[in-house]
Request: fold
Amino acid sequence: MFARWEQGDQTSFFDALAEEVQWTASGSTPISGHSTSKAEDLEKVYQPLRTHFSGPTHCQVTQLLAEGDTVVVQWHGETPTRVGRPYVQE
Reply:
């Protein structure tokens, strides 16, 4: 799923997320916080960000940890924005 995203296919990632996914957006911005479902994350984090983006997110997985049905992914992402500066994510 992340290999496809690294190649530019973001749709596969969001399609594959479990409905009960736990997602934490670190930081102190309006989108920072913890989401407890796919719908909540898309509404609180992804949709607001999309209004500022001018192109796709290019990402690279930096660490992947899995045990049982728990998976933790750390990644670096950069997305071009409408103001010309990249939105950098860790």
Summary: The mean pLDDT is 89. Residues 2-89 form a domain with the Nuclear Transport Factor 2; Chain: A, fold (CATH 3.10.450.50).
